[in-house]
Amino acid sequence: MPTKIEKDVISGRDTTGHEWDGIRELNTPLPKWWVYVYLATIVWALGMFVLYPAIPLGTRATTGLLGFSSRAQAMAGFQEMNALHATQMQEIGRVSFADIEKNHDLMEVALTAGRITFANNCQPCHGPNGEGRIGYPALDTDVWRWGGSLDAIQQTITHGIRSADPDARNSQMPNFGGDKLLTPAQIEDVADYVMTLYGKAKPGVDTSAGEKLFGDNCAPCHGAKAEGNRDVGAPPLASRVHLYGDSRAAVVAQITHPRMGVMPNWNHRLSPATIKAVALYVHSLGGGE
Amino acid sequence: MNVSHPKPEADVAPPTSLYANRVRVYPKAVDGPVRRVKWLVLVLCLGVYYAVPWLRWNRGPDAPHQAVLLDLWNERFYFFNIELWPQDIWFLTGILVLSAVSLFLVTSLFGRLWCGYSCPQTVWTDLFMLVERKIEGDRNERIRRDRGPLTFDKAWRKVAKHAAWLFIAFWTGGAWVMYYTDAPTFVHDFWTGHASTSGYVFTLLLTATTYLLAGWAREQVCTYMCPWPRFQSAMLDENTFVVTYEAWRGEPRGHGKRLAAAATAAAPLGDCVDCNACVHVCPTGIDIRDGLQLECIGCGLCIDACNHVMAKTGSTPWLITWDTVARQTAKKSGVNPSLGLLRPRTLIYLAVLAIGSIAILTGLMLRSTIGLTVAHDRAPLYALLEDGGVRDGYTLGFVNKTPRAADFELSVVGLPGAKLILSEISPKPETTATVPMPADQLRTLRVLVQAQPDHLVAGRESFDFVLRNRETGAKTTYHALFMGPVSHDR
Ligand code: SF4
Ligand code: SF4
């Protein structure tokens, strides 16, 4: 409160009457309209209080006359997006791969949907970016057991490999060791030969016996040049990329008691359109044919 | 009616209000050299402001044809042959910094020239006052009419004035929007109802602010709202030329026989005849004879007013003049003053200005029209291929800063036998890839680089992506890393 209005001796102006440690403040009055602007902003604020959610009431707040809620706004946005995506996904399910690839917007939606679906479903085995790991094939390389075209990938995802689906991709590698089709010594010989295919031949090792055994036992599926056979999912062995590792011990183990991976059929979990989207995404990882 | 801010009268009881009624200012018309320069600056500023959006500039078929265009929507700024991208925004920052330093320099030399002559607030207020004078007459007529009762004459003049103001304000607001969108299109769309909502909103908003600030608030903006006056006082010193009343020869002021008779040879009357002409023309309504004040925008109109009076009384003109405190002190004691323009403060501002300008010009000249950014995939670092080859994935950003579409050529140097795969363009591995680039755009593509790893030392090798614009020959390289397996006991 102003205590003593007086005139300042030097400037001859009024003081506000405020005094702090002997320092007095000159009165430089503010124009009234300026104050009215302040008042107007307060009136404006009152309007906001009435129209919008404002006063906290413990666990909730007043809702305001407009019934505005940022959550509802966000949800409306989501719904709008979902509706848009629903039509776009329908389109993806309807048209051919070639048509999707020609349509930039559709392709973008497909790749995004594919990426998210992949992260939720495929990543545990194939790795976050399809790089694979021992026993689970990499999807970003040019080695494919069952084919790397869009149609082949779509087929694999839909029906799975050695899954319960009647249309699953199916094949069996003979149990050469367990069923005594080959003796342990023969298996060692085959392994020596296979190591030459892997590009890891030990110098001075005679592989002619192994090569002969390979021709008789393995070539029917893996091919005479060990180039693999996609009809039966037999991987190429003349390669640098190997599902179960490239050590000699791994080769011996595989011939003796073959491991054969299982991939679930996704047709009972994902819609055909989503599977197409995943196929497009996997195809884009770098290995697509 | 009081034209200057109320001065305390010793015998009036002290008012206690902390709020004051607005003191209306009725500036009087004045003519003279200062006023003519001020008109010239006003015409120049307004001319530039209203005309610039209409200047055309041919940038070829793929770019806008407006010479000055701040295309916020497409994130491009165009200034004649210069085109700025978001990453070039530092040019604007630099220009603003240089503008600030220029302002410091000018202010420390010649006071508030910016305020008095080129500030939009001053320019539009001046224009609005001119309109007011044309419709309502000069100072005395306006005062008389404002005090008088509401007559038809008063009513139509007020209505006409505000209509004219609103028209100018509207034109001003519209011109502002034209800097952000194609001017002819905007005008057409505006009147056919097809302009964007933001176009209408900003036009109306700026119409309102122009009308309110230049018509109603006027000097109140300078006195109460604007930070510049506070700021500029820091640039003034005793060597700054400011509008100054030469009190040493003006005082004691006065006129009339009685005062003249009272004056003696030992204490003659000063040159100031106390006619208040300087006060009446002042757009902020102050009395310059009270010395330098916060409210004074340095327009110099009081100088013109006073010179007329000095001519009539036969005294030396320029009783009110531009001068420095130091020179005035010297003159008072009859010493010949020096100009004092070169002093550490001005020299430092000048140096900063020069260095900054050179830096910006160099930057502008060396600015590249081609850009390339490379990001290696974070995981997997590489993929092994059937034949033992290695393939790395990258995300490349291509930038074409020219207004023409062109084929860009991407190649790899330092990685023997390397092949590029740009699956979005062609799935075939090739040594040199062609990337069609649209005008003025950037494009992000995934690029796979495939090579034999024989020469990889410790699983990595550095190499260069080289990008070249086939049309202009502009070239850029990006130093990147190729990764592969660390070692193979093959
Ligand atoms: S005080 Fe501010 S608004 Fe007034 S003339 Fe100067 S810069 Fe412009
Ligand atoms: S005192 Fe003179 S220079 Fe200052 S604002 Fe008034 S007319 Fe302009």
Q: Short summary of the structure?
A:
The complex is a heterodimer of chains A (289) and B (490). Chain A is mainly alpha-helical and 289 residues long.
CATH topology title of the domain at 85-167 and 264-284 in chain A: Cytochrome Bc1 Complex, Chain D, domain 2
Rg value of chain A = 37 Å
**CATH class designation of the domain at 85-167 and 264-284 in chain A:** Mainly Alpha
Helix content of chain B: 40-55%
List segments of chain B where confidence is low: pLDDT < 50 over at least 5 consecutive residues: 1-14
Number of helices of chain B: 16
Order of helices and strands of chain A: EEEHEEHHHHHHHHHH
Q: Which regions of chain A are unreliable across 5 or more consecutive residues at pLDDT < 50?
A: none
What is the molecular shape of chain A?
A: elongated
* Category by helix and strand content of chain B: alpha+beta
Percent helix of chain A: 40-55%
Fold and architecture overview:
The complex is a heterodimer of chains A (289) and B (490). Chain A is mainly alpha-helical. Among the domains of chain A are: 85-167 and 264-284, Cytochrome c-like domain (Cytochrome Bc1 Complex, Chain D, domain 2, Orthogonal Bundle); 184-256, Orthogonal Bundle (Cytochrome Bc1 Complex, Chain D, domain 2), CATH 1.10.760. Chain A is 46% helix and 6% strand. Chain A has 11 helices and 5 strands; from the N terminus they run βββαββαααααααααα. Chain A has helices at 32-51, 70-94, 97-102, 104-121, 123-126, 150-159, 184-197, 208-217, 219-222, 248-256, 272-284, and strands spanning 15-20, 23-26, 30-31, 56-57, 60-61. In chain A, the strands form 2 sheets. Chain A has a two-stranded antiparallel ribbon. Chain A has a two-stranded antiparallel sheet with strand order 4-5. In chain A, β4 and β5 form a beta hairpin. In chain A, α7 crosses α10. The longest helix of chain A has 25 residues, at 70-94. Chain B is built from 16 helices and 16 strands. Chain B has 490 residues and is an alpha+beta fold. In chain B, α2 (89-110) runs antiparallel to α16. Chain B folds into 2 domains: 21-367, no CATH class; 370-489, Sandwich (Immunoglobulin-like), CATH 2.60.40. In chain B, the strands form 4 sheets. In chain B, strands 7, 8, 9, 11, 12 and 14 form a 6-stranded antiparallel sheet that branches. A 4-stranded antiparallel sheet of chain B has the order 13-10-15-16, with no helix packed on it. The longest helix of chain B has 27 residues, at 152-178. Chain A binds chain B through residues 2, 5-7, 12-14, 16-17, 27, 29-35, 127-129, 131, 138, 140-143, 199-200, 236, 239-241, 284, 286-288, and chain B through 7-8, 10, 14-22, 220, 224, 377, 379-380, 383-388, 391, 393, 423, 446, 448, 489-490. Residues 115, 119, 121-122, 221-222, 226, 228-229, 297 of chain B line the site of one iron/sulfur cluster.
